[in-house]
Design goal:
With 298 residues, this protein is mainly alpha-helical. It has three domains: 37 residues, no CATH class; 157 residues, Orthogonal Bundle (hpI Integrase, Chain A); 83 residues, no CATH class. It contains 14 helices and three strands. Strands 1-2-3 form a three-stranded antiparallel beta sheet. β1 and β2 form a beta hairpin. α2 crosses α6.
Length: 298
């Protein structure tokens, strides 16, 4: 079993034996002291690009499955728990909002974990199609969905029909991809509130670095340099892991080992660019910052 599965089951055993100790059935809890903290597995984190998701959506067999998929990928819903409890009355069509009320993951929270999801156009389109097929007076959006519904097997079949390679955690990776999209467009606390988790949980389990993140970071840090790299320094574009030509003096292998800001600084320094802020920026470039960037190559 995976280490996180072992820790979850160990934690359950510890709770059971703790109760047994309190009831006087046994003298001590043999699971005391064992680690039960579940940590994220970076190897199983995966962001599904929207173009790949479109291929999957095209092969969905009906309106129910298309709605489930867009709610998971674009709305970052937990599957099946949050979809199972979703009612038609929870959808405010004119206000473009969906109230996500209950989930087995969050039902112990004092406020019952009510959160508001924006009714994005793609989600609205699929839900309207599903609503047109619903029986008169239907209460639940997915009336046949149960906690033990086998969504995994059906999604695997859809992926095969779409010719898409299966990602590690089928439904959780879809939700994590939606959470990443929200985090890229909104302040982190807003994105976390929409998705129904804390910023700390999101950072550890959901948010991932996508293929375009370093491109965007380069553009924001130095638009002038980004244009230069796009037209002169990069043969196939600055994609994913900074595959920059060695002819420009950039050690691509080392850059691939560094994520985010450090990778950008190495690229800036290697190209002789130290101005991280334009002349009309908030503050002028300082010698300390320039030196720091240069030192990243050492």
């Amino acid at each position: 079993m995976a280490i996180n599965t072992i820790k979850r089951r160990t934690g359950l055993c510890r709770q059971i034996f703790k109760q047994a100790v309190e009831d006087g059935l046994i003298a001590r809890n043999p699971f005391v002291g064992m680690s039960t903290s579940v940590r994220s597995n970076k190897e199983r984190q995966h962001c599904i690009p929207l173009d790949v998701f479109e291929k999957v959506l095209e092969k969905a067999p009906n309106a129910t499955w298309r709605s489930l998929l867009v709610l998971a990928r674009l709305g970052a819903l937990r599957m099946p728990s949050e979809a199972q409890g979703l009612r038609w009355d929870d959808i405010a069509w004119e206000a473009k909002r969906i109230s996500i009320v209950l989930s087995s993951k969050t039902e112990h929270h004092a406020k019952r974990a009510i959160r508001i999801l924006p009714l994005l156009p793609a989600i609205e389109t699929e839900l309207l199609k599903l609503f047109a097929e619903a029986e008169d007076g239907a209460e639940f959006v997915f009336p046949r969905l149960r906690a033990d519904s086998n969504l995994r097997t059906s999604l695997e079949k859809i992926l095969r029909r779409a010719g898409v390679q299966q990602w590690p955690k089928l439904w959780q990776n879809l939700r994590a991809s939606g959470a990443t999209d929200f985090a890229q467009s909104l302040p982190s606390h807003v994105a976390a509130a929409i998705c129904g988790h804390t910023e700390q949980i999101a950072q550890e389990h959901y948010w991932t670095v996508t293929d375009n993140d370093l491109d965007i970071a380069m553009e924001k840090l130095s638009p002038k340099l980004a244009q230069k790299v796009a037209h002169e320094a990069v043969s196939e574009g600055l994609r994913s892991s900074l595959n920059v030509s060695r002819a420009e003096g950039v050690d691509a292998k080392k850059a691939q080992e560094i994520q985010g800001f450090d990778a950008i600084c190495r690229l800036l320094a290697s190209l002789g660019e130290t101005a991280l802020v334009d002349d009309i920026g908030l503050e002028p470039t300082t010698p300390t910052m320039s030196t720091w960037c240069s030192n990243q190559l050492s």
